[in-house]
Specification:
Largest sheet: 5 strands, parallel
Number of helices: 10
Mean pLDDT: 93
CATH superfamily: SGNH hydrolase
Low-confidence stretches: none
Order of helices and strands: HHEHHEHHEHHEHEH
Radius of gyration: 19 Å
Distance between the termini: 65 Å
Number of strands: 5
Shape: globular
CATH class: Alpha Beta
Strand order of the largest sheet: 2-1-3-4-5
Structural class: alpha/beta
Length: 215
């Protein structure tokens, strides 16, 4: 009798364990989709906080249908973990990914190849569901607060660019140059106080590059 009671106690204890990271963000997306059916043939943005904080992204692309499913702090491992939740509810004509920066921030020793493999895994998951749509990757940006990680990030960008070049209906959208001054240094005025997230002007510059890739 006692052992049955203990088992029940353990079961209750473990059922109250914390939900996996970002679980609540995914529930919020589900709630949004229930409240308003997501449009078909839209451009689906998936990734981390550079998308999350782009709350008025639709106003930058007034002639496009945009679904923004960025969740702050996410890494490519999280995109892989929640791939079904991020892809299954939608019927987009294009998917644009911005993610990878937090993978390096999470582990400063991480090799570029590891992040590239994580992206390739996510890319394959997209292709299993959407074999023919346009899939684009925005280059990892140079964030002044993560300056020490730039060499790895730059290498990851290079490898992902090479991978995307070989894939059909895929583009690597490089936003590095547009964020630099005439001396080739990143413009710090494009960032808010944390030197990680961007100002509206930063997003305006992204838009100027992204426009030609948008379906």
């Amino acid at each position: 009798m006692l052992s049955a009671f203990l088992l029940l106690t353990f079961a209750l204890f473990f059922s109250q364990e914390k939900e996996p990271m970002f679980w609540q963000d995914i529930q919020n997306f589900k709630k949004l989709d229930q409240e308003t059916a997501p449009p078909k043939d839209a451009i689906l943005l998936v990734g981390s906080s550079s998308f999350t904080k782009w709350t008025d992204v639709a106003s930058y692309f007034p002639d496009k249908k945009i679904i923004n499913r960025g969740f702050g702090g996410s890494r490519l491992t999280d995109l892989n973990y929640y791939a079904n939740d991020l892809l299954n509810p939608y019927q987009p004509k294009q998917i644009i990914v911005y993610c990878g920066e937090n993978d390096f921030a999470d582990n400063h020793q991480l090799k570029a190849e590891v992040v590239v493999d994580r992206f390739k895994t996510f890319y394959k998951k997209i292709r299993q569901k959407f074999p023919k749509i346009e899939v684009d990757y925005i280059s990892i940006k140079y964030s002044p607060s993560r300056e020490t990680l730039w060499p790895q990030m730059k290498e990851a960008n290079k490898q992902i660019a090479a991978f995307m070049k070989k894939e059909k209906n895929s583009e690597f959208i490089d936003i590095t140059k547009v964020m630099q001054d005439s001396n080739g240094n990143v413009r710090k005025d494009l960032f808010v106080e944390d030197m990680l997230h961007m100002t509206p002007e930063g997003y305006q510059l992204w838009t100027s590059v992204m426009n030609r890739y948008m379906k």
